[in-house]
Request: fold
Amino acid sequence: MFEYEINAKEGRARAGVLHTPHGDLQTPVFAPVGTQATVKTLTPEQLKELDASLLLSNTYHLYLRPGDELVAEMGGLHQFMQWPRPMLTDSGGFQVFSLAKTRKIDDEGVTFKSHIDGSRHRFTPEKSIAIQENLGADIIMAFDECSDPNDHVYSQKAMERTHRWAERSLQAHQRADQALFGIVQGGVDPDLRATSAEFIASLPFPGIAIGGLSVGETKEEMHRTLDVVTPLLPENKPRYLMGVGTPEDLINGIARGVDIFDCVLPTRLARHHAAFSSTGRLNLMNATFSHDPRPIDESCDCYTCRTFTRAYIRHLIVAKELLAGTLISIHNLRALIRLVKDIRGFIVDGSFESKVPALLAQWDNNAQRQKQSVNLNL
Reply:
């Protein structure tokens, strides 16, 4: 049911298809984040119009509100939020571990306080899997402990606990219509990452996620970590880089063999008036856009860029109209979805490696540093 087929390769970049109960995923793919069973400011129909093929929702938040049992009663996430295409849920681990002042970790699991009302709760690998089975996403995650890139000792302990929890997650998993992915941890230490990649790859997961990145490390550390990890992962299983989603990160990740990405960044930037563009990131609150008749990006095919001017969107921002966030979110998400779709085509026709420098120059304000960071001969 969750067979992964590779259609083309160029260097370490892959173009493939992951079969799921709610449709085929053409990879590489970028997933918008719908933390609470909604992508902020957008409807499911708008997301379909953007050609979004995969959405992510959050186990921790949905467990607290409205409750995973209610979601199950309503027919699961797909029915509850009226999204007919594939979905992914994280394990809740990252959110639990981010509650540093209110959680306690032990070998069995994590006890934490709700950020909503202060009530106490406990997650174990078994509990996380049970919640995700109630939510009903196509792809679910093993419970893991996120590493600290600045603390080697803690990263090793978190990695070892993640490995034990991965085995327990596999034992707890019951639903054959859900693909359970294991998660590689280990901070930015190459030896720990290699150990973790080899261990998780040895377990019968149909896909493998790379966690604990984009949490404070440098771009160079992220790239070095991917250079260690992806060559150690099975060729016939999809690879998911968790929580990473700037245009330059997508380009660099795909070049290093990553297939699936997600990130809150596109919609979060939109709520702060920032837009991706092929000439650099734009702050649309800037007064220089008040009489600008151009779209956000003249090369973009999204509804926002086909219809509205920068001047209009700035007016909405100044007037504090909610439509501003919707229009910028439409653009930012379409920019990333279109980018990875274009890259898939480049991999298929064998031109991706030659296009990487131009793609980075197009999307990254600090393009020269990023160009130097990519070594496609690894």
Remarks:
- Confidence is low (pLDDT under 50) at residues 366-378.
- The first helix runs from residue 44 to 49.
- Residues 209 and 240 are 4 Å apart (CA to CA).
